[in-house]
Amino acid sequence: MNYHWNWAILFAPEPGGSGTYLHYLFVGLGWTLATALAAWAIALTIGGIVGTLRTTDHPWVVRLGNGYVEIFRNVPLLVQMFLWYFVAPELVPTAVGDWIKQMPPPWGSYVPAVLCLGLYTSVRIAEQMKASIQSLPRGQRYAGTAMGLTAWQGYRYVILPQAVRIILPPLTSEFMNIIKNSSVAFTIGLMELTGRAKSMQEFSFQVFEAFAAATVIYMLTNLVVVIGMRWLERKVRVPGLLAAPTAVQAAH
Amino acid sequence: MGGFDWEVIRTSLPYLFKVGMVFTVKLTVLAMAGGIFFGTLLAMMRLSHFSPLSILAGAYVNLMRSIPLVLVIFWFYFLVPLIGAWILREPRPIPVGTFYSALITFTMFEAAYYCEIMRAGIQSIARGQVWSGYALGLDYWQTMGHIVLPQAFRNMLPVLLTQTIILFQDTSLVYVISATDFLGAAAKIANRDYRLVEMYSFVAVVYFIVSFGLSLAVRRLQSRIAVVR
Asked: Which residue on chain B is closest to A195 by alpha carbon?
């Protein structure tokens, strides 16, 4: 095996003229985080609402929520990415479609990527939300009703404050998933961290330096997320309220 | 949009299924078998009292779980030919082909995820069962093989199968190394005939039907297992 290692390549200028390759990769990390955070906002909002609605006692609302979850869970992320990028602009009115297609470079990929990742992740959050609400003792809901709270007040003051605390640890891994999954957006032309590592490999022929640098950057990012979320968990913990043990789940 | 063209889907069906879907299913089934095998070994290593083994396995699993699958696919795509050359003492990288590259990638990647499932499965077996195995004079491999693992597999079967459905969907990512899996085959037709809307919608529907059908089957199995226990 005669691979010529050249770690100095990280400090060589990249052909686009924006600075060193290392800088080029870190700009990629910036896009990864910008995509993940925007998608995270969508995912938390929709996932939280859908997950909560699936625990109400309106059968049609529950069925609608279940249908939403099944659709987004059973189509691969990459296929969903293509649907948002290639198919969605053709399905909307022509003027809107043309406007979408004419968005300047990063945004033309960024917007579909964020929408796609946001909805894809919202389904996973909806599942977590439902599970965490259902893990609360049923008496909590009855106690709320007995005290004269309406259904809405019961959720607002009794169920949700507890459910949100229970859901925090699984949310940590969902947030790491959304960061990792944002790498799929490079297939529709978003130059995030993985995409930039790939193009660095193509420009410089230093395959393993490029991928190793990206790997280390991803691992450091994960570390920061884990530490940050642990801090958040400690901060919002209610003394005496233990988190429910989380069952092992299939994931990727 | 100039009308939905069913014809392009109809004419490409043989190619999509005989070439694309065969690739996808073969990759899924083989990577599942390999992934569960190595994942179980990794889980046994992680639970080992011999700390170098458990640290090594833990580091591997955490590494695989903290980087994106797309990056792992690239890593192995370039790494496997070099490792092959190193093992066979060839001066040049060994061409491996996208299928075997993808197979090695998914086996090694999914092993990390199956490992965590099997670890929970092994831990779900009461410790007393292991001790009674040793008390009867069985060694570690006999205790694992005859007592712990069969029960762990049974307990974890629904989760293992759900992970396999995710694996089935994730194999679509071999698109990034231009493999002709189900999505790759559809993408080739889509770009050749400029029929992206038709092909990608059709692909989404097929993936949905297969994944949803399988997940319904897993749910039925889950309720059956739950009744027996």
From this structure: B71
Give the fold, CATH level 3, of B6-228: MetI-like fold (1.10.3720)
How many H helices and E strands in chain B? Answer: 10, 0
pLDDT per residue as tens digits for the range B129-158: 999 999 999 999 999 999 999 999 999 999
Domain hosting residue A103, numbered range? 12-236
A229-235: long-range contacts (C-beta < 8 A, 24 or more apart)? Answer: A229/A168, A229/A169, A229/A171, A229/A172, A229/A175, A230/A172, A232/A168, A233/A168, A233/A169
**pLDDT single digits (tens) A91-123:** 888 888 888 888 888 888 999 999 999 999 999
Extents of the domains making up chain B: 6-228
**Chain B residues with CB-CB distance to A77 below 8 A:** 169
Q: Does residue A139 fall inside a structural domain?
A: yes
Query: Model pTM?
Result: 0.90
User: Does A194 lie at the interface with B, CB-CB under 8 angstroms?
Assistant: yes
In a domain, A144, yes or no: yes
